[in-house]
Amino acid sequence: MLGWALTFFIIAIIAAVFGFGGIAASAVGIAKIIFFIAIVLLLLSLIANAVRGRGPRPPL
Predict the structure, then answer these.
(1) Residues 6+ apart with CB under 8 A from 51
(2) Are the C-beta atoms of residues 35 and 8 closer than 8 Å to each other?
(3) Which of 20, 27, 34, 47 could form a disulfide with 5 if both were Cys (CB 3.0 to 4.6 A apart)?
């Protein structure tokens, strides 16, 4: 998901350089939404892992 957010951010930068303000604003908005969704999912994952009491797996 963070890769998608980064992709939309790069699209926004390129659109802004070429003067497409509307497309740049839309791409930034989408990137922000995806970024915050990724952060929420990360926090939920960390909380669920802490509640289950399982640590990280040992390397193979």
Answers:
(1) none
(2) no
(3) 34
